[in-house]
Amino acid sequence: MADDDILRGVGPRLRQLRLEREATLSDLAAETGISVSTLSRLESGQRKPTLELLLPLARAHRVALDELVDAPETGDPRIRPRPVTRHGRTFLSLTRRPGGLQSFKMIMPVESASQPTLQTHEGYEWLYVLSGRVRLVLGTRDLLLEPGEVAEFDTRTPHWIGNPGPTPAEVLAIFGPQGERMHVRS
Questions:
Q1: Cβ(108)–Cβ(169) under 8 Å?
Q2: Cα 134 to Cα 164: distance, rounded to the nearest angstrom
């Protein structure tokens, strides 16, 4: 979820918490020292919430600050990916933090591309085939990866990845920015 989406959700949560307590804006202003007009603008989304405003509001509503901004549970290591479909492939992000190495589960439908279109870009890629089959064209090499097989390559090498069928393929993929590689130890 983008920062702007998270911030837009704060106002409605503040209003809901206040109404659940059956408090008026005046009651909340007296308890927090925040003016009625500021509280009203926060709840309506006309003012962006700041830490200085959210801290006293979290105390007044007796909730954790994370609850006001809809953050994931503290200490909860689970990632609940939301599927995104691009070019017919479904991607489920398995990484919470932005930047650096990113991991995904990819579900690839059978592709009928007769001639692969090779591409290049900065970075590094690592693939692990969970099920199905994956065709990897890497430079002059044409490889067929089966379940349990892994491929790692510099994405500046012309490449194409597809599913020759006969069933959809599921792949774990780790993408790294320029120069960042996986470090596999045996």
A1: yes
A2: 7
